[in-house]
């Protein structure tokens, strides 16, 4: 395969070699990139540089729904320093891309469907020149009515966001503006309701959350001598990107070569295409490398967000506290393009019952097409919205029955062997009651901590913090609990696999393993975990992690809590195959010298071949000498099934994860200010491959759940479908002063079906942290609070 012979861009990832005498599975080995990141020396995708590169810029729509009457690029083309200006008319091949449906235009043609949609591209010799030239492009729009909610989307005479749908769900939905509908029916909820002594209903609203990663969308596209493209980009799924990019460039996939650049966070927002196709188009048109870096304003339009939702729930229970039935309808707003809405709907419906035993359910979840911003993957993926609603319902039921909210949950908690509403048996540990017991048993943080500072109040410990608006008057404490259930890995029959290439060789007299996968390191710790697994399976100290790229088979997406399970499983599998090859070489070389080569169980430990009794037979270096052993293999989890379109029955998920939280808050009820004092979590992690990373993941997920509880929301104007707050000035995320103490208590109850018994950990804490905070605020104020985020005006009655 012909390769580009240009000088490699500055910032290109290189091999990372880790040398640890101890550092296998179960050790808290440190990240090899940790010091570089905290000292500012780590090269992110936005730091990449090529000596003769151009800069790309996108022109985006200023309206949410309109016909494009004309696009005039003449003034932009005549700007000094501009090398190219592209519209949809300049696209060489396919005009659409998409994760599940190919419904998203590379550049808008015919009409725009959401505020901020890409309409034109500019390449210039300086980023400011590119921005000024893009501003000179004149687009004439004929505005159309906007679709912004379920009522406007599903009205009989509703304008269709997408005419002439031909996707595989189009024939199965009641309206063309419904992307997907998933019902789940089990038992008879109407009959079961007759046995209920109490029934509670609730309507809940979950706001649109942004992933708010600090590293903006960015990358570098370099044209190659063979007519292909070398793309260095921050993404979550290299091979899925390539499958979408290649048709839009008119290239075969093997001419689109992708390398993972340094990533500054992801959380689902990099699972879809952002600037990859755009930069590549400009590079191929100009024959020069093109770098694109979105600013923060552009980033809010450059990736999908978490689906906002309306949720309608009904639960019943007997007077002794047993839940009789559940009915719910979940409406998810997918925005203008499908992205992963189909799968989010599947998750929301199948997990809508929560971690509880309820035999009689009637569930419906739908995802809408609207003219709001596109929504797709974000940490928690449909289960977050459902957890917010069903946990509020649990508190309402407990209150109506006069029961303790934790004891009520424990009474109805699922366990191993419980049958899900989909008919699937939970066949691994489900310690829901124990997680709740642990968070409840924790000692409470001291009250009125601001008074412990000696003279005067420490305002940092008060609601409102350094704004100095409260000095403790009207401050009330509240405590709330929540627990959630999240699937791990890709579901509903998806062929979920990962690939690992492992090489073992002798360098300078020492056995060295090289791990090569396409798994995206987005901060979750794969760069450490992969080396730990190789070290454990191959018994070597030195492990080199090859940069992730498309020169090895797919590792799937770094999402759904799947990478330690899937790519970890692939690495373990390939290492086992390498080990067998090494032992076979050893048997041929040394088998006649010791009977253990033929009769004993042999392992690789400490750079040696040893028996299970600990006797060393040879060093790996002596066995291999100048020979290298290399294996590249795919590895799959057990198969899953699609949910039935009518009943929702099917073994749709491969694994479940559970987390519980206790939130302690202090609320200034006069000013509507909230201070979260502590947000304790207990979670089953199956096996802590790296305990330090486990705690970090749980605390990170907890913090994102805190954000959506009290501050995070993208505000979309319901009349124009325009985004009102696309900046970190107006879209607020928790800072270190907002983030409370997050004690973590994790269990290691192995899943027998998973490598090392691991369980995905990154998403579950995002579920239950939000409703725990809301429950604590309700306890402090006595207000119902059925919407996220809780704003001061909702607490003071000035909404």
TrEMBL record:
Gene3D superfamilies: Aldehyde oxidase/xanthine dehydrogenase, a/b hammerhead, Aldehyde oxidase/xanthine dehydrogenase, molybdopterin binding domain. Coiled coil: none annotated. It comes from the Bacteria. Residues 1-32 are annotated as: Disordered. Residues 39-145 form the Aldehyde oxidase/xanthine dehydrogenase a/b hammerhead domain. PANTHER family: XANTHINE DEHYDROGENASE, XANTHINE DEHYDROGENASE SUBUNIT D-RELATED. This is Xanthine dehydrogenase family protein molybdopterin-binding subunit. It comes from Streptomyces litmocidini.
């Amino acid at each position: 395969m012909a390769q580009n012979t240009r000088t490699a861009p500055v910032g290109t990832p290189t091999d990372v070699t880790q040398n640890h005498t101890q550092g296998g599975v179960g050790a808290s080995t440190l990240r090899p990139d940790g010091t570089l990141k905290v000292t500012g020396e780590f090269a992110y995708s936005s730091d990449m540089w090529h000596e003769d590169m151009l800069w790309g810029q996108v022109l985006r729509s200023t309206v949410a729904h309109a016909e494009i009457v004309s696009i005039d690029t003449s003034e932009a083309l005549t700007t000094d320093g501009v090398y190219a200006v592209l519209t949809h008319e300049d696209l060489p091949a396919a005009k659409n891309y998409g994760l599940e449906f190919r419904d998203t235009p590379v550049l808008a043609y015919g009409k725009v469907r959401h505020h901020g949609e890409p309409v034109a591209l500019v390449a210039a010799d300086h980023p400011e020149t590119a921005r000024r030239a893009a501003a000179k492009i004149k687009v004439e729009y004929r505005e159309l009515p906007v679709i912004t909610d379920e009522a406007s989307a599903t009205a009989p005479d509703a304008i269709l966001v997408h005419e002439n749908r031909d996707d595989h769900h189009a024939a199965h939905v009641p309206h063309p503006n419904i992307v997907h509908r998933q019902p789940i029916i089990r038992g008879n909820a109407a009959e079961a309701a007759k046995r209920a002594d109490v029934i509670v209903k609730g309507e809940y609203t979950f706001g649109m959350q942004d992933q708010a990663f600090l590293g903006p969308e960015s990358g570098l596209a370099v044209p190659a001598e063979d007519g292909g493209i070398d793309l260095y980009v921050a993404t979550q799924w290299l091979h899925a990107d390539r499958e979408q990019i290649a048709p839009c460039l008119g290239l075969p996939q093997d001419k689109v070569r992708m390398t993972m650049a340094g990533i500054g966070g992801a959380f689902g927002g990099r699972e879809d295409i952002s600037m990859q196709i755009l930069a590549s188009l400009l590079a191929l048109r100009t024959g020069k490398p093109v770098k694109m870096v979105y600013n923060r304003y552009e980033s809010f339009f450059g990736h999908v967000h978490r689906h906002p939702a309306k949720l309608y729930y009904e639960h019943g229970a007997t007077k002794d506290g047993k839940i009789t039935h559940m009915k719910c309808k979940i409406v998810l707003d997918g925005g203008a393009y499908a992205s992963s809405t189909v799968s989010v709907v599947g998750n929301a419906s199948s997990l809508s019952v929560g971690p509880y035993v309820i035999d009689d359910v009637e569930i419906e979840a739908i995802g809408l097409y609207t003219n709001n911003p596109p929504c797709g993957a974000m940490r928690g993926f449909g289960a977050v919205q459902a957890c917010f609603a069903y946990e509020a319902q649990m508190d309402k039921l407990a209150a109506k029955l006069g029961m303790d909210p934790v004891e009520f949950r424990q009474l109805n908690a699922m366990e191993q062997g419980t049958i899900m509403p989909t008919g699937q048996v939970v066949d691994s540990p489900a310690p829901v009651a124990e997680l709740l017991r642990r968070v409840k048993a924790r000692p409470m943080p001291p009250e009125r901590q601001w008074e412990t500072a000696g003279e005067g109040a420490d305002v940092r410990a008060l609601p409102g913090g350094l704004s100095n608006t409260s000095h403790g008057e009207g401050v009330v404490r509240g405590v709330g609990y929540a627990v959630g259930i999240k699937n791990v890995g890709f579901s509903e029959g998806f062929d979920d696999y990962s690939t690992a290439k492992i090489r073992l060789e002798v360098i300078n007299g020492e056995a060295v393993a090289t791990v090569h996968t396409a798994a995206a390191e987005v901060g979750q710790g794969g760069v450490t975990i992969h080396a730990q697994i190789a070290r454990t399976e191959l018994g070597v100290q030195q492990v080199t992690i090859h940069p992730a790229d498309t020169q090895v088979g797919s590792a799937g997406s770094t999402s759904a809590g799947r990478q330690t399970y899937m790519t970890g499983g692939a690495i373990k599998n390939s290492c086992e195959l390498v080990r067998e090859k090494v032992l076979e070489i050893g048997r041929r070389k040394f088998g006649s010298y010791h009977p253990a080569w033929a009769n004993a169980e042999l392992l690789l430990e400490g750079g040696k071949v040893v028996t299970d009794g600990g006797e060393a037979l040879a060093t790996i270096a002596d066995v291999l000498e100048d020979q290298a052993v290399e294996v590249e293999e795919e590895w799959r989890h057990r198969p899953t099934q699609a949910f039935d379109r009518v009943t929702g029955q099917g073994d749709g998920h491969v694994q479940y994860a559970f987390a519980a939280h206790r939130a302690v808050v202090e609320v200034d009820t006069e000013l509507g200010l909230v201070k979260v004092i502590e947000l304790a979590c207990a979670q089953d992690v199956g096996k802590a491959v790296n305990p330090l990373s486990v705690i970090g993941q749980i605390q990170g997920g907890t913090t994102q759940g805190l954000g959506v509880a009290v501050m995070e929301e993208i505000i979309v104007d319901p009349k124009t479908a325009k985004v009102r707050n696309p900046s970190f000035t107006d879209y607020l995320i928790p800072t270190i002063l907002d983030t409370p103490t997050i004690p973590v208590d994790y269990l290691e109850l192995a899943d027998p079906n998973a490598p090392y018994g691991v369980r995905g950990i990154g998403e579950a804490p995002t579920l239950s942290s939000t409703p725990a905070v809301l429950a604590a605020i309700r306890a402090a104020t006595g207000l119902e609070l059925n919407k996220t985020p809780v704003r001061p005006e909702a607490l003071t009655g000035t909404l």
